Amino acid sequence: QVQLVESGGGLVQAGGSLRLSCAASGRTFSMNVMGWFRQAPGKEREFVASINWTGDNTYYADSVKGRFTISRDDAKNTLYLQMNSLKPDDTAVYYCAAAISITTFQFGNDINHWGKGTLVTVSS
Question: How far is residue 76's CA from residue 34's CA, in Å, rounded to a whole number?
Fold first, then answer.
């Protein structure tokens, strides 16, 4: 079993930065990909970014490319999402996710484990 706990959300002004963390525990070595999704009020959950197990392959949604950076620290079993140049449209609950299947991860399918989420609010 894998447990994922997000932290780092909060209120920030447009143009500001936040860093989200996702502490992972359990059988994390069985997961081939980890990443972030978000869900804004009244909208469906959407893919944000992912990173593979070895950390050498990252993928981003077009809406965050160039502003967000995903990384992982395996020594700490922690996944990060550095968010810069935040916009009000980035306001959402951000969820950490882990999966065995890489190819379907960005579609939110076959996700094996979800965190409970952390709220990010960007004011204009």
Answer: 15
